[in-house]
Amino acid sequence: MVLDPARLPTLILASQSPRRAQLLERLGLPFQTRPAHLDEEASNYLAPEALAHALALHKAQAVWRSGEWVVAADTVVALNGVLLGKPVSVAENRVFLKRLSGQTHTVFTGLALILPEGRAVALVDAAQVRFRRLEDWEIEWYASSGEGLDKAGGYGVQERGMVLVDRIEGDFYTVMGLPVRRLWQLLAEEGYFSGGKGGAA
Ligand SMILES: Cc1cn([C@H]2C[C@H](O)[C@@H](COP(=O)(O)OP(=O)(O)OP(=O)(O)O)O2)c(=O)[nH]c1=O
């Protein structure tokens, strides 16, 4: 089989996250974004892993139309079982960073794919992230940059946040918000690349 990206069906990315769009762009896959507007707080009673799974699935289901390949993801940060969502202010971002400092937390990213005939597949990928012990001035520098405000856990590993992280066990892209290798494999398994099971002809 020779892969001709020009013949692949356009993926619908159910996300407003610029990071997720960048990653799909880097793969060279044809896609359009169609963000789902969900009340993410409504499912906060779930455990972190189940939450990432459910939200990814709900986002994909919210935008799917018959005949489309839809991709969605959701990233959740948990420190000792406690969720750290997106900080609502610089002050809350400071608090999050103090809690993450010197500790290891888990990032769960749920990934959902809906196939043209409507069947949904979803999975969760997890990574362990250890933060350096941060100095107060570093916390101040990072929080006041505002970079962490639209991100789960209040940091972005792919931007300035790269210097806060000591080590990652697992996939960097799962931390960034889209497990691209798992997505690629799922697309391959479901026939997106080969024209089988509703994929490209
Ligand atoms: C931990 C971490 C999270 N993030 C981001 C990824 C996600 O965009 C965000 C988590 O929020 P999500 O609710 O997963 O996604 P979103 O609201 O940004 O976009 P959408 O729901 O429309 O898909 O945090 C990073 O960019 N880098 C990181 O290191």
From TrEMBL:
Keywords (A to Z) from UniProt: Cytoplasm, Hydrolase, Nucleotide metabolism
NCBIfam families attached to this UniProt entry: maf
Q: Where is this site: Important for substrate specificity?
A: R19, T75, Q158
Q: Spell out the subcellular localization from the entry.
A: Cytoplasm
Q: What is the recorded function of this protein according to its Swiss-Prot or TrEMBL entry?
A: Nucleoside triphosphate pyrophosphatase that hydrolyzes dTTP and UTP. May have a dual role in cell division arrest and in preventing the incorporation of modified nucleotides into cellular nucleic acids.
EC number of this enzyme? 3.6.1.9
Q: Which residues form the signal peptide?
A: none
Reaction(s) the record says it catalyses: UTP + H2O = UMP + diphosphate + H(+); dTTP + H2O = dTMP + diphosphate + H(+)
Q: What is this protein called?
A: dTTP/UTP pyrophosphatase
| High-level lineage | Bacteria, Thermotogati, Deinococcota, Deinococci, Thermales
